[in-house]
Amino acid sequence: MTVSPSSGPTQVVARYTLLAIALHWLLALVILAMFAVGLYMADLPFSPLRLKLYNWHKWAGVTFLALTVLRLLWRVTHRPPALPPAVTKAMPGWQTRAYHATHYLLYLLFFAVPLIGWAYSSAAGFPIVWFGQLPLPDLLLKNKELADMIKPLHELSAYALVGLAGLHLAAALKHHWVDRDGLLSRMLPGRS
To answer: In whole angstroms, how far apart are CA 105 and each of 55, 115, 183?
Structure first.
């Protein structure tokens, strides 16, 4: 239960399912870890450490992609809770549109970033062997010129994903700390 200053009495806020909450926070952690590793490894000189980090980054990317498919399937089959009435009443139309647009763009980037990375790895001639055990098919034939064109797209899309995730976080914290409307409690672990 949450107390909303705009609605007065305590109200029950519908929550996401436990699996949706777990996937949300797991994917958030994976995004941060992959981005941090990506930034760190990009400037390393050629070395065993750099090769190891590139492999871990690729494994995390493929795992992230698989978890994203699971999350999307779960979302399609389990309708997310509606925004609380106090939130929909208080939010201007542009914020509601931004809320929906941000979620659609996040899902788009959840797929685009790892797929572009996979395409880059294929074009660069570096196959992906998931966790060193499962060879994955190349998405493209080896082509250095194409790889050089794809690499900045992977970087830009990763920055866009992290930036959009930061915007998502800022909006959630604004709802929690400023609006105090219970919106964040729908995605927090534990009971409301």
So the answer is: 27, 15, 20
User: Tokens representing 92?
Assistant: 């201007």
The amino acid present at 43, given as its one-letter code, is D
Domain residue spans of the chain: 2-186
* Residue pair 6/180 in contact by the 8 Å Cβ criterion: no
Alpha-carbon span 81 to 66, nearest angstrom: 24
Helix axes 93-123, 48-77, angle to 10 degrees: 140
For residues 73-88, average pLDDT: 90
123 neighbors 147 (Cβ within 8 angstroms): yes
**pLDDT per residue over 41-59, tens digit each?**
999 999 999 999 999 999 9
Q: Does domain 2-186 have CATH number 1.20.950.20?
A: yes
pTM assigned to the model: 0.88
